[in-house]
UniProtKB/TrEMBL annotation:
Principal localisation: membrane
Membrane topology: Multi-pass membrane protein
Organism, scientific name: Luedemannella helvata
Protein name according to UniProt: MATE family efflux transporter
Compartments, record wording: Membrane
Transmembrane segments: 43-63, 84-106, 126-148, 160-180, 192-214, 235-253, 265-291, 303-329, 341-359, 371-392, 398-418
InterPro entries: DinF-like, MATE_fam
Domain of life the protein comes from: Bacteria
Keywords tagged on the record: Membrane, Transmembrane, Transmembrane helix
Family annotation (PANTHER family): PROTEIN DETOXIFICATION 44, CHLOROPLASTIC, PROTEIN DETOXIFICATION 44, CHLOROPLASTIC-RELATED
Pfam families (alphabetical): MatE (PF01554)
Length: 433
């Protein structure tokens, strides 16, 4: 069973990688914000669309980590790296498709999202998106690289690759935007440079291993099945959070703003908890790949405990900041007041979320992604969506909204704990073995 120190050795570099992109986005937003409100609005639209590529990358990375970890645990590091090669082929194909498609559909999609915004916003967003989309192959190659390297428990190199690329972009962005006079397009170019460099570093990490670089149709099909299940699961998450925003908007601007404050803080907490999940993917996958089911179960219990303690620690921090944190985001007393209504639900959810994230990592490492897909769909369609719209009909306000999110977490936790207790998830052997 891995020690808490070993879990931390895997989780902390993963946390740095997870946090690097959001931190860079903050820098990019600050730089572009000084150009004017139209440019900032354009970045919000274009960046939101490009964020879907990052979401696809997370799906690819998680699926690759589990399979690579099982091969690594079986003592076949070479096969684990070959799994990374196949994931990289998928990443390249998807990235090139996105880059080309963006050149064609950027304008109609942006204008649909921009709605009644002034025409200059849509024009600027289209230009930004067409350039930034050229970095899609790099984004997805980097995520595939993160996936297989996590699987073989090599997390330090990905951390430096991602950090180096983001630091370069953060330094390049203001230079391109201001002294060189490229404006908003300078931000997009800086993104492309960083993402392409990051992707190239992960490709180099594959090449120097000396493994065959040819595509394997059978492995590609298996990865597509895993990716499909994780994609459906992710789509259920997106539907939940979009529905929450839609309900919040119906209560008015103050409620929506208060929900956004809590949601952004929730997203920050999720980054920390997701790092534990990534450690779980690597450790449980390796144990099962090595044929040690007992070790996998013990590891799952240890990771669940670590996730729960991390969630509890975050709950203490967020709870202690209840009368301070909302004020950092808004000076409007009505917004702060409504945020405080969500706070008990937000804080109470965090320890449970710590358990859920850790168990998600356990089952992804075990390759039990079909179960995760089905559980998430049930929690979203049968419990969360009816609860959130019932809360709206009863006029429960932001409290009803966050109560529904808590129900979503509780249902998933119940299903995950039942699955772990049953033990059918702990199947020894490498993928396809």
């Amino acid at each position: 069973m891995p020690s808490a120190r070993r879990i931390a050795e895997l989780a902390l570099p993963a946390l740095v990688v997870l946090a690097a992109e959001p931190l860079y986005v903050l820098v990019d937003t600050a730089v572009v914000g000084h150009l004017g409100s139209a440019e900032l609005a354009a970045l919000a639209i274009g960046g939101g669309l490009l964020g879907l590529v990052a979401w696809l990358g997370v799906v690819l990375a998680y699926g690759t980590t589990g399979s690579a970890a099982r091969l690594y645990g079986a003592g076949d590091r070479r096969a684990a790296v070959v799994d990374g090669v196949q994931a990289s082929w998928l990443a390249l194909a998807a990235g090139v498709t996105v880059a080309l498609l963006a050149q064609v559909v950027a304008e109609p999609v942006v204008r649909t999202l921009a709605g009644d915004a002034e025409d200059g916003v849509a024009v600027a967003a289209v230009g930004w998106l067409r350039i930034a989309a050229l970095g899609a192959p790099g984004i997805l190659l980097a995520m595939a690289g993160n996936g297989w390297m996590r699987g073989v428990q090599d997390l330090r190199r990905p951390m430096w690759y991602v950090l180096g690329a983001n630091v370069l972009s953060a330094a390049l962005c203001p230079v391109l935007v201001y002294p060189l006079g490229l404006g908003l397009n300078g931000s997009a170019i800086a993104n492309v440079v960083a993402q392409t460099l990051s992707g190239a570093l992960f490709v180099r990490a594959l090449v120097v291993t000396g493994v065959p670089l040819a595509p394997h149709p059978g492995t590609l099909r298996r990865q597509l099945v895993v990716g499909r299940d994780l994609l459906v699961r992710g789509a259920a998450f997106q539907a939940c959070f979009l529905s929450a925003a839609a309900v919040g908007a119906r209560y008015g601007a103050a409620t929506l703003a208060a929900h956004q404050i809590a949601l952004q803080l929730w997203s920050a907490c999720a980054l920390a908890l997701d790092a534990v999940a990534i450690a779980g993917q690597a450790l449980v996958g390796a144990a099962l790949g090595g044929g040690d089911v007992t070790a996998a179960r013990r590891t799952a219990r240890r990771l669940t405990a670590v996730g729960g303690w991390c969630g509890l620690g975050l709950a203490v921090l967020i709870g202690a900041g209840a009368f301070v944190l909302p004020g950092l985001f808004s000076a409007d007393p009505e917004v702060r007041e409504r945020a405080l209504v969500a706070w008990p639900w937000f804080v109470g959810m965090l320890p449970l979320a710590g358990l859920v994230f850790a168990l998600d990592g356990v089952f992804i490492g075990a390759g039990d992604v079909g179960f995760l897909r089905n559980l998430t769909l049930v929690a979203a369609l049968v419990f969360f969506l009816p609860a959130i719209w019932l809360g709206y009909r009863l006029d429960l306000g932001i409290g009803g909204l966050w109560a529904a999110l808590t129900v979503f977490i509780v249902v998933r936790l119940a299903g995950l704990l039942a699955r772990m207790a049953g033990g059918c998830w702990a199947v020894a052997g490498a993928p396809g073995g």
